[in-house]
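If you are new to this repository, start here. Below is one unmodified record pulled from the training split, so you can see the exact layout before writing a loader.
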Amino acid sequence: MAGPVLILGATSAIARGAACAFARRGHALYLAARDLPELERIAADLTIRFAVPVRCGVFDAEAYATHNDFLDGVVREMKGLSGVLLASGYMGDPLAAREFESASRVIAINFTGAASILGLCADYLEQSKQGFIIGITSVAGDRGRQSNYVYGAAKGGLSLFLQGLRNRLFPAGVQVLTVKPGFVDTAMTFGMPGLFLVASPTEVGERIVKSLEGRKNVVYLPWFWRYIMLIIRSIPETLFKRLKL
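And here is the target side for that same chain:
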């Protein structure tokens, strides 16, 4: 059986898609998020469908002081880890995010909490000299836009953090994959105006695992978002600041 994989933010639609892809390949799974009853339902479904061991437990990205004990407990229960997928995310209300209290929560979940737990995972995998880290960021982190610049800043910071981990962990044989999804059919994007080319989370989850197998460093999903964001990044600032994006 393939090595155990820890999935953080496991109740998200993309995480479920990736969990199915890992389970299909024979990986044991540890699912972690805030909603334990939902985690238990997902774990039961994966166990029945793929006949792999699936454990679950509560993980709070904002409870930084608990992260070390949480990871130690997962490693003990799973008898080691071969990899980690971070799928935690929180967009919040873009208008409310102009207020510091709301903005700080967006940053705490999408960057600070992610950096806390992934730093600990990096230490463990570096000592093991094997494995992988997958971090799901967002195309929103490629350029600051008035519609979601706090969320974009947090995800952009996470992308840079993952880039640094990739550079640090390469000598230890640990792979770090940065995943930048565009619009995906999830609870986070439900009801948002102006969505287009919305992808299936099941397909995105499968592509994440295939990208890992292909030894990719950074991947946009679906693939065409690489070119959409290339165009957006190339717009001169004198023009970009006048656009309603």
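Two things worth knowing about this chain: Residues 6 and 84 are 5 Å apart (CA to CA). Confidence is low (pLDDT under 50) at residues 189-196.
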